[in-house]
Amino acid sequence: MKKTNTGFKKEYSKRAGYSKEFILGDLHRYIEANKLFYGYIEKAVKTTKIPNPKLLEVGSGTGRNACYLAKKYPKATVYALDILKESAVSGKKVAGILKCGANLKFIPGDATKMKYPDKYFDVIYSQGTLEHFKDVTAIMKEQVRVLKPGGTLIVNVPQTYSYYTIKKHLGMLLNKWEPGWETEYSYGDLKRLGKKFGLKLTNVGGQEYDSKIIELVKAYKFLAKTIIPKPLDNFFRTDWTKFKEKYGHFFLLEIMAVYKKP
Ligand SMILES: C[S@@+](CC[C@H](N)C(=O)[O-])C[C@H]1O[C@@H](n2cnc3c(N)ncnc32)[C@H](O)[C@@H]1O
To answer: Domains of the chain (ranges plus CATH)?
Structure first.
């Protein structure tokens, strides 16, 4: 985690100086790419039936998720927890741009030793955090402890069977992979993870392509505009979307699991 966090530290410190256009562009791209992830959070917030739920982001990083959600749910309180104080610097910049209110709280702290009482949060989520822990026992136990019974935990991690896994492990082997150490999870791994920590897996999904696949998608889109006949293109797109929705967690870049605490 040390090397990983050195990279994050640099990035979050730099972000405080980024322009409004950059931050908004990044946020827009990110929200588009994370539609499914946000959909799970939205559903979890709805099912609480509480007018002012408490949401916790574990490893809030740039602060973009927490800011976006605090703005979307003004009656909720969103806690953005990160071990790096530089994360709050970046988060406050995003919050200023989005004009987020006092319902967004930046909390520097360690997710393996949280200061919150048991059963405090209605929804807990993370995006790109769990894979940086060689041993997830402490962080998982803490998340389960502070989650209310009936509450939802959503994790978003890299999916094992993708080109990104090969690229990442090669990079780590050659000591040339900037974000440092990281692992990945398959559908089976996430099923076992939930079981181990007493959580019920209620949904699973995949999203995002890795960079090489994005190149292929771009090439396809170009061909669709020129030589692929419209009916064939429509057929590909509809079927592909359905296929991705059903089986994306087996081959896309990111896998998300939605757990309920009984
Ligand atoms: C990949 S980043 C998350 C990025 C975030 N999803 C975003 O969109 O900006 C992972 C984050 O987890 C944080 N982290 C690592 N260990 C942690 C711990 N023990 N407690 C809290 N946060 C931690 C890191 O500092 C880093 O900001």
So the answer is: 2-208+251-260 (3.40.50.150)
